[in-house]
TrEMBL record:
Pfam families: AAA, Lon_C, Lon_lid, LON_substr_bdg
Protein name listed in UniProt: Lon protease homolog 2, peroxisomal
HAMAP family membership: lonp2_euk
Motif (Microbody targeting signal): 851-853
Disordered: annotated span: 598-621
CDD domains for the chain: RecA-like_Lon
Domain Lon N-terminal per the UniProt entry, residue ranges: 13-234
Amino acid sequence: MSSSGGIQIPSRLPLLLTHEGVLLPGSTTRFSVDSARNMQLVKSRLLKGTSLKSTMIGVIPNTKDPEHDSDELPSLHRCHGCACCSVFCSIGTAGLAVQVVGSNWPKPHYTLLITGLCRFRVSHLLRERPFPVAMVEQLDRLEQYTEGGQLDGELGELSQRFYQAAVQLVGMLDMSVPVVAKLRRLLDSLPRETLPDVLASMIRTSNLEKLQVLDAVDLEERFKKTLPMLTRQIEGLKLLQKTRKLRPDDDKRVLAMRKGGVFPGRQFSLEEDAEDEDGDDMAMLERKVKEAGMPEPALRVCLKELKRLKKMPQSMPEYALTRNYLELMVELPWSKSTTDCLDIRAARVLLDNDHYALEKLKRRVLEYLAVRQLKSALKGPILCFVGPPGVGKTSVGRSIARTLGREFHRIALGGVCDQSDIRGHRRTYVGSMPGRIINGLKMVGVNNPVFLLDEVDKLGKSLQGDPAAALLEVLDPEQNHSFTDHYLNVAFDLSQVLFIATANTTATIPPALLDRMEVLQVPGYTQEEKVEIAHRHLIPHQLEQHGLTPQQLQIPQDTTQEIISKYTREAGVRSLERKIGAICRAVAVKVAEGHKLSRTDSSSEPGALFTKPAEDSDMTAPPEMPIVIDQVALKDILGPQIFEMEVSERLTLPGVAIGLAWTPLGGEIMFVEASRMEGEGQLTLTGQLGDVMKESAHLAITWLRSNAKTYQLTNIAGCADPLEGNDIHLHFPAGAVTKDGPSAGVTIVTCLASLFSGRLVRSDVAMTGEITLRGLVLPVGGIKDKVLAAHRAGLKRIILPKRNEKDLEEIPSHIRAELDFVTASTLDEVLNAAFDGGFPAATVTHSQIASKL
């Protein structure tokens, strides 16, 4: 063993060859090891060794091109005699490996944290495989400087100048930075002879300059080589201070000093620019974590992760994952919120201006504002707007956010089939990220926004889980105050978020999820409401979108009604807006062509929408007049009418009745047709019917057969059993559309009763209701949508179950005044209302029926 006072190194040392940097005595540096010999050294020596001696290695800088084989020994003469060693020997640094970290990304490698002890010279090489081992001679004899106390002579003067320059450099830095204060204390505690190596490893120097310091075995020569480097950093920092006004509390001060060439940092470990920048960011990130206003559990987790991050090398894949996690935690609005606008009068005016009708939804929002005035700590309600497309569910949610003065965020759930979209991915997975709830909060920046969960009825389910089940915690007021995203793994308070879900139907929403929401039905609009919506919102919007003005185009209310009744048939207003857009485009073409736009007079031929003066006319062109769209112009632009009132035409033969159906798109009228012919008493059903509707048809046949004598129903041959010797074919038109549900029961009975009796059903009547085997009429749903569909079709009498009478209160009063409602509790009452003169009518003969036909 070679001895050097307090420092002793073995005479045989394994050698680590590196081209990344130069290790100086007294400094700590990270090295990435990926070559075959160096990795074998780590596996055989460092990972298996347990003693201090086994972790001591020699680090020799490789000055060759790093792209060449880094295993080739630099400047080592392969001889066994000492005489030739003075020419070919290399100087390195003996060091202790204090940390070894392995990784397979992007390729297998180890990251070593090595602390330099002293210089050595290679006497001769003992072996090269599997890793090099050499006999070494220790060079640093520090006891010769310390045994006599202070350095004297020229060396003492040189060391004093160096110390003063180091103190001046540190004094120009910000002492509030912990690493700078620690460096200042080191200057007073470290021996003067160690300062050249320590300072050379901290300031910005090239590898060539560090090699010169390493090769300076003589202490006086070492001071002389390092002092100009220190002076250069001081001058650079002075120049930087002259050109920039540095504030003591400026977070970018350390970055500015880096540009000046100074790299303060951890003791003995500020070799590289990336490490120093990481240290600055760590301090900034730690301050942000403490200022984020997190609850105590989340703060503890963040500080723990930050502590791990400080000890983690940047080359590890987990470093980026942990840093992304901490940055997300800092960006979340743990304590940031907006103040609600609680002026109920202003809110009512804003809602009325944004939306016409929808009184139930507006009333619920005003109720929430009123309660918020009385009680400030109020949990956000969980609302669910259910209605057909195009009725304004999404736009109402946006208006609610504007009324409350809150941020708005929409989450589209249609087709989502992975529960991780809601709850996030665990951080153990590659590419993990938070769920849409947490990501939405990050985007809006406050903890009390309005979240619109759009199309909640169209959630899917797959092997990745059920997102509807994941929403149970989100939409439960008793649980969402501690919602835990898998990515965060800490609780986040969602109780102040106002959740609004939208759906076209509740049939596909799981019962447990539906139970957590306050369902508000948004039925379709009446024709009068559509006219108002068109003239208040749709027409001005389309004029603006197409660059037109009311002085160029006018659409009267009569024309709007014509569009609604003959060109659209829907519960919402989307098709209506598209038709208005088509009119605007037609007018825009004429405006772009530069024609004078004017209405034709009564003598003009139909279809002449625009007129143009003759080219040879000397008359001055009349002033430009607005285009007024009438029925002639409407037909020119939109073509022939799409929907015609075919009700009376379809009811010219016995065996036809009109039912009312509910679909996710709104209410519709539905024709039921029946025919009979000689056969064996079979019943044929067509029209893509579901099982429930097929059962309703069998119920109707059974009830009519059991009451055939009462209602004078016969077959073709006049037999009392309508099915005897006859086959019945029951058809529901629009055969491409699947149909199901119990509400067609009364319609099927009426249709078959008309067929068996040979009497016509009234052409202005429609009906809905479920039947039983005993002839009772049971209530059904969707009454308002069905009534509006009948009103759009021009029907006047509607037969409803007796127990649905309460649902008529939801129908606008002017609609109720135009319709004749008949409520029935039995099929006998239904048949009496569906036929003129009641059913059966003994006074009506077959000849009278034939005369009507």
